[in-house]
Design goal:
Layout (H helix, E strand, L loop, with lengths): L10 H44 L1 H24 L23 H7 L3 H11 L4 H8 L3 H15 L4 H10 L5
Helix pairs in contact: 4-6, 4-7, 5-6, 6-7
């Protein structure tokens, strides 16, 4: 009797043969992949060389334009940079005396004591709602007094009204 392990058609031989076919297949894939990659690289390099030689004037022109644009932007930013100017303003303040409302200016402008009170609270940074709560009036009343103060002082905004009130000596 012959043993089946040494016969040429056994499963060990077919396993070896299948493994060698797989290895050959992978070798073919790798070789053809590398060859294709090298061919594509060679073609791209040739195309690049052709483009550089054929379009060198456009490339140099573009590089020159980009350089001058960068220099122009840098120079423009450098020359138009805002300069900080410090200005000293002297405001005469009577020393040691408490603030007193300029009654003459108050009469001249025609601001009532309640409107002056509203202006003082605006100067403290309070909102219309906060002023209304403090004075126990409605918010609409505060808005009415505020708009009258603005009209009498010739102001368009709250900050402008406060500034004019200080200039006229109505608020500290």
């Amino acid at each position: 009797m012959q043993s089946t392990a040494n016969s040429p058609g056994t499963s060990a031989d077919t396993e070896r043969s299948a493994k060698s076919q797989k290895a050959r297949l992978w070798r073919h894939i790798i070789v053809f992949g590398l060859a294709g990659g090298l061919l594509i690289t060679l073609l791209k390099w040739t195309e690049y060389r052709y483009l550089v030689v054929e379009h060198s004037i456009e490339i140099y022109g573009g590089l020159t334009a980009a350089t001058f644009a960068a220099i122009g932007i840098w120079l423009g930013l450098r020359l138009t940079r805002k300069q900080i100017v410090l200005k000293e303003v002297r405001v005469p303040v009577p020393a040691g005396q408490p603030f007193a409302v300029n009654a003459k200016k108050q009469e001249e402008v025609g601001i009532t004591p309640r409107e002056l009170e509203i202006l003082e609270l605006i100067a403290k940074g309070m909102s219309n709602r906060e002023i209304a709560e403090k004075l126990f009036v409605s918010e609409n009343t505060v808005k009415t007094h505020s708009s009258r103060v603005f009209d009498k002082l010739g102001a368009k905004r709250r900050t402008q009204a406060v500034q004019l009130g200080k200039e006229f000596g109505l608020i500290p």
